[in-house]
Specification:
alpha+beta; two-stranded antiparallel sheet; 641 residues
Length: 641
């Protein structure tokens, strides 16, 4: 079927293009209206930012005035400084409250809240200082106003007031204006505080802010050279030179121990006269900076208007381009009719290709269906294999449980006949020893020894079977207490061999205290038993690793060949004959089961003739509100018998 398009009908496309042109004009007008709205919003934002910067400068200046008034009160004991403080404090509170509504976003609002909080804490400290001064405790007031708490709040206040301003050229002028007012007050009050207290830290503060004031003035002059006339600048510079000269003389007198003369200079009529000249010049300069800031704002508005006008320049160009498009429309129609005919041919070819594709899809679908059936059979076979594996696992678990029960019952039931055999063999030994020949005495001794070894073996086998079934619940266990009990149990062996047992302070762990004692006794006992020519020496230590405590028991014994490191933890495995060392070969197997029950692992590092170090891990105890409560101190304790 032949496709029918809009351009294949007998309608004139000129009407459609005219509609498109009208819509384009509407869009452009709408865009211009929004650009105008954006410009108005930008102007409002600039004015609001200017107000924010002025408020920030006021807050910085008044904070310095209040801080210096409080400190001068504490330094001089003169309550007239408190009157000055009370006169300026409401102005600072009003400035902070006014800054809140001016904050146009959450960041500035949060900054104002932080400034207000820091100011409240500073006001509280300063009020306490004034109370101390009124009660004749000026030294305590000075310590309070020079203390860490007050300085911390001062730094926080300065940090947040510094971040409470926008970044624009004309706003930078307002910022410099506020900085000049602030640092001028800082220099004056630093000099006077140095003279009042004799503390040279105020001179350090003076020297730190003096270059900052000079830099701010130079930057302001560079940004707005018209802010001050040449004559006014000369008068201000002359007054500033005299003020700096008088303040330097005052600092020299303070360093020479002549603070009274320094105060006389800084509170003299000449100093006040120069301050008034300098203050008037700086006031004129700040006024000029404000005028320059307003001029900069006006220039920014003009630039914005110019860019707005440039935005309307493309409109005539768009009209010309649409006229060209309209003239070319008829030519486009002929070309598009030809394109429609070619599109019809391509549609027929595409339909033919679709039929071929449908046939191939059907064939491929059949192949995938066959493959899916095979996959389904494979999944079913795998599921059956998994079910068989699960059944086998359950059978193995039941078998292990039955084997443990059998070992327990067998070892328990063997105790009675073994006690009977042991009793009668001891009776034979008591009645007939030395009454028969030597061979009979040897046979009786062999029988007694065999019965004793059988009793030890059965007891060890019983203990092995009870590790998992008769253990106590885990609870915080003090390693030091457990080790003391173990050393008491090994006291005879330590005394007989002349052994030395040392240990680092041990932690508190989550463990079964009985099984932990059995574990430590087995490992320390082995270190004492398997020793060489030197007296045994055993050291016990522990370190924290990933929520576990890793214990280490190091000895100076005969050592173990590397090929036997895994074998020794298997049940009934001995590396030496009974004539060399006593034992049943179950002790390390019991130790391994105890460690595995606690969720840890055990291993050994050793070389023949170089001693052995047995390691095992157990969970650390959780102690509330003490992150490192179970960390042992780096000291060692020695137990020698």
């Amino acid at each position: 079927m032949k496709r029918e398009t809009v351009l294949s009908k007998k309608r004139d496309p000129i009407a459609l293009l005219t509609v498109a042109l009208v819509l384009n004009m509407v869009v452009l007008l709408w865009l211009g209206w929004h650009v105008h709205g954006y410009l108005s919003d930008a102007t409002t934002i600039r004015e609001r930012n200017s107000r924010i910067e002025e408020q920030r400068a006021v807050m910085v200046h008044l904070d310095e005035v209040l801080a210096m008034s409080a400190r001068m009160t504490a330094a001089t004991g003169d309550l007239r400084w408190e009157e000055r403080y009370r006169r300026f404090q409401p102005q600072l509170d009003a400035a902070i409250k006014e800054a809140g509504p001016a904050a146009c976003d959450r960041h500035l609002a949060a900054t104002v809240a932080k400034i207000e909080a820091a100011n409240a804490k500073l006001a509280e400290i300063e009020s306490r200082a004034f109370n101390l001064v009124r009660h004749g405790r000026a030294d305590e007031a000075a310590s309070l106003l020079l203390g860490d708490e007050y300085e911390t709040q001062k730094r926080l206040y300065a940090q947040w007031t510094l971040s409470f301003h926008p970044r624009h050229t004309h706003l930078r002028l307002l910022q410099l204006r506020g900085m000049i007012v602030h640092m001028d007050e800082v220099l004056t009050m630093s000099a006077r505080m140095g003279a009042a207290t004799g503390d040279m830290q105020w001179e350090e503060r003076y020297r730190r802010f003096e270059p900052k004031l000079d830099a701010a003035i130079k930057e302001a002059i560079a940004l707005a050279p018209e802010a001050q006339s040449v004559e006014a600048a000369a008068r201000t510079d002359a007054a500033n030179i005299k003020l700096v000269e008088m303040e330097n003389r005052a600092f020299d007198l303070v360093r020479g121990g002549r603070a009274d003369e320094a105060r006389a200079i800084l509170f003299s009529d000449e100093y006040e006269t120069q301050k008034q000249v300098y203050a008037k010049g700086m006031a004129d300069f700040r006024s000029g900076l404000a005028t320059a800031a307003r001029t900069s704002l006006t220039q920014e508005r003009r630039r914005a208007l110019f860019h707005l006008m440039l935005g309307f320049v493309p409109i005539p160009l768009a009209l010309v381009s649409w006229l060209v498009v309209l003239r070319a429309a008829r030519k486009w129609r002929a070309a598009l009719d030809e394109s429609n005919r070619g599109l019809a041919r391509q549609t027929e070819e595409l339909a033919q290709l679709n039929r071929v594709l449908d046939r191939k899809v059907a064939e491929r679908t059949a192949e995938l269906s066959n493959a899916n059936e095979g996959l389904t059979r494979e999944v079913a076979e795998r599921r059956r294999a998994e079910e068989a594996l699960a059944e086998r696992t359950d059978e193995l678990a039941r078998s292990n449980a039955e084997l443990e029960q059998f070992a327990y019952v067998a070892s328990h039931d063997l105790q009675e006949p073994l006690r009977m055999v042991t009793g009668y063999v001891h009776m034979l030994e008591r009645r007939y020893k030395a009454k028969l020949d030597a061979d009979a005495d040897d046979f009786i001794a062999f029988a007694v020894d065999g019965a004793q070894r059988m009793s030890v073996l059965i007891n060890d086998l019983l203990a092995y079977s009870r590790v998992a079934t008769h253990g106590k619940a885990f609870e915080p266990t003090d390693g030091e207490t457990v080790l003391e009990a173990v050393l008491a149990n090994l006291e005879v062996a330590i005394a007989e061999t002349g052994a030395t047992v040392t240990h680092d302070p041990l932690p508190t762990v989550m463990a079964d205290n009985v099984q932990l004692a059995r574990l430590l006794q087995n490992l320390i006992g082995n270190g004492i038993k398997y020793h060489g020519d030197q007296p045994p020496s055993v050291h016990v230590s522990a370190e924290r690793t990933d929520g576990m405590w890793q214990f280490a028991i190091r000895d100076n014994g005969i050592g173990i060949d590397r090929e036997h490191h895994d074998r020794i933890f298997a049940i009934f495995q001995r590396l030496h004959g009974r004539g060399e060392y006593q034992g049943t070969g179950i002790g390390l197997a019991i130790s391994k089961r105890i460690v595995e029950r606690h969720g840890g692992r055990i291993w050994v590092e050793s070389e023949p003739g170089q001693g052995s170090t047995f390691y095992f891990t157990v969970p650390a105890a959780q102690v509330p509100n003490h992150d490192d409560a179970d960390e042992p101190a780096p000291e060692a304790v020695v137990h020698a018998r």
